Amino acid sequence: MSQPNPISDPLIRFGIFELDLRAGELRRNGARVKLQEQPLQILEALLENPGRVVTREDLRKRIWPADTFVDFDRGLYSALARLREALSDSAESPRYIETFPRRGYRFIAPVEAVTASPVEDASAAGVPRSAARRYVVPALASLAFGTCLILALLLSGRIPWNWRWKHAAAPIRSLAVLPLENLSGDTAQEYFADGMTDELITALAQLGNVQVISRSSVMRFKGTKTPLPQIARELHVDAIVEGSVVRSGQHVRITAQLLDASADRHLWAHSYERDLRDVVVLQAEVASAIVREINGTLTPLQRARMDNARAANPEAYVAYLKGRYFLNNQRSTEGARKSLEHSLQAVQIDPDWPLAYAGLADSYVSAGFLAALPARDVLPKAKLAAEKALQLDANLSEAHVALGMVLANLDFDYTAAEREFKRAVELSPSSSYAHQSYSDYLANVGRVNEAISEIKLAQELDPMSFWVSRDVGRIFYEARRYDEALAALQEASEMNPNSPVVYNWLSWTYDKKGMIQESVQMDLRDEASHGASEETLWKLRRTFEKSGQPGYLKQKLKTTRDDAYIAGQINARLGNRDEALRWLAKAYEQRSGYVALLKVDPELDDLHSDSRFQTLLRRMNLLQ
């Protein structure tokens, strides 16, 4: 199918939509869809480049030229929101327009251009790689000749056998594991395929000395037909691992292959079949095979880690994967509760399996931070689970992260917490989560420059992660670099517009920039996301219209959800110092998820001179 051309192709069809380029009209099932000029221009730009990333700079030059005096970021965000609304599309689960943070956007649905041209271009139409490769069959004759020539030279001794890696390809320094395809035919097994992908990423991150892209970024390519070279460019990697998994009863088969990403060239492939109880050993085996293929051998430490992999009870492993699935895919109070339920089952079924305890520690920490359960109650349990995991296997990076988070947020033992975070990064240098957690710690104790460096490392390893992007903005906010904070937070919001965990940070950042209207609007979205009634929201809006931000904050104190830290922060903003300190002391006792911000929250700057605030900082070991 030819690439759409705005001159020769008057109509472009995709799904139930049709764009008439000459009339400048979008139609849905033949009916005209009202669409303003800028969203329409963005759609035209994307449809002219199906399957390719259209950069933000390209859109700026095309739609917002240099002599146009507008806020480009806000204008682009607004236009895209209107376009997605017209297409009934979602940035979180896109059917048509996919977001690439800091870069641009791509049209991912099949496109049909109504044209008289008989020439068809499979790659532009988004044909699956397996189908597109059929078009290169005529080249096999010359490839076979070249292969025979090289083999003859190898056999004659004129080319050393290790020539393959030293001269045939550039060194592989980074790779991405694409989501393993679920070939079981049972959609209920998607959690298993996703879990196997996660565990293979973790195993590679710990085994190899190559940079491994984290799960959030690779999961965006699940179910897509994006060509491998394009995925490699977008993730900035040298190699790709892709494959499939089939689970049938107590048997598991994994097929994996390593490909040179830039050339879409096969380097290695193998199929493995094991009992479900041996799946952890299987993951280590696959990871070590990939590392050997890249490096030629395993180091003694890598070999020891592979040998330490132990069989797991099949039922415990399934419960563990379900716990990880809800933790990774449903970052919500309900998701945290489900994750905890399955993680507890895994420990009960196999009480000697270290990964089960590491997963349980993560689930407890998330339940506390997401307010699914009182942090004061669950963080001690998280500590016990993490310590048990490390007692069984001292080299579990994720258990060191969980323990570090508890030491920092429950015990306020920052020296011990940093030791755990550093050990986690040392054990798994490609773990975005380890770097992200360490950056949170550094920011909260006031070491913001180090925190920025660490969160940037996390972002390199997980460039499309909403959560990492959110934390980039949060750390810039704590560093008082509000313009950079706003840009990062807006980017995170664009990646996941329906996630409420960015609203409060945007509201606070707008407030510090003096953008009060925007701050209140974002705060109202935050309140709505936490279940505020229509009556409550109406009262807040009405109060802001009549009494401005001070009246709004006073009204908010009457209706705010039960969070002692937020109540303390609001009182501080209103100048109610006594009330602010009373609530913040309560937040300390409750181990509120926000209390770790006490030293660095800009909204509390006016309290720093108060001796009572200094005493509170001293109790938290935050006063040097």
Helix % is 55-70%
Q: What would you call the structural class?
A: alpha+beta
Low-confidence stretches: 116-168
The outline comes out as globular
β-sheet strand percentage: 5-15%
Number of strand elements: 14
What is the average of the pLDDT values? 80
- How far apart are the termini? 66 Å
Major sheet: size, sense and barrel closure?
6 strands, mixed
Radius of gyration: 27 Å
Number of helices: 27
What's this, in brief?
With 624 residues, the chain is α+β, with helices and mostly antiparallel strands. The strands form three sheets. Strands 9, 10, 11, 12, 13 and 14 form a six-stranded mixed beta sheet that branches. It has a five-stranded antiparallel beta sheet with strand order 4-3-2-1-8, covered by helices on one side.
Describe this structure in words.
By secondary structure, the chain is an alpha+beta fold. 56% of the residues lie in helices and 11% in strands. The protein is built from 27 helices and 14 strands. Strands 9, 10, 11, 12, 13 and 14 form a six-stranded mixed β-sheet that branches. It has a five-stranded antiparallel β-sheet with strand order 4-3-2-1-8, covered by helices on one side. Helix 14 (354-369) packs parallel to helix 16 and helix 20 packs antiparallel against helix 21 (482-495). The radius of gyration is 27 Å and the shape is globular.
